[in-house]
Amino acid sequence: MAELRWCSWHQQHADDAVLVAVAEVGSGPGIMRYACRRCRVVFALVPLEPDDGRDRGDGGCDDSATNEPRHS
Ligand SMILES: [Zn+2]
User: What is the distance in A from the centroid of ligand 1 to the CA of 5?
Assistant: First the structure.
């Protein structure tokens, strides 16, 4: 079962959301929030967790390889 996390960008739960660092206001440290894959691409967010699927270990029935080119 995929882990649902709240995507702070499109304001819905997503099973592919990962932690990203957000530098919000000029003062204070960045805020940790979760963003799904789509929002990471749209908003050019940098994940703090690996996103290549090698750390999932959720059964190994991965039939949807996502080898999208990286946005830098
Ligand atoms: Zn999202």
Answer: 10
User: Is the distance from CB of 32 to CB of 66 less than 8 angstroms?
Assistant: no
pTM exceeds cut of 0.70:
no
Cα 38 to averaged position of ligand 1 atoms, centre (Å): 6
All residues at 6 or more sequence positions from 37 whose CB lies less than 8 Å from its CB, including other chains? 14, 16, 17, 51, 66
> Ligand 1 centroid to 18 CA: how many Å?
10
pLDDT(63) > 80? no
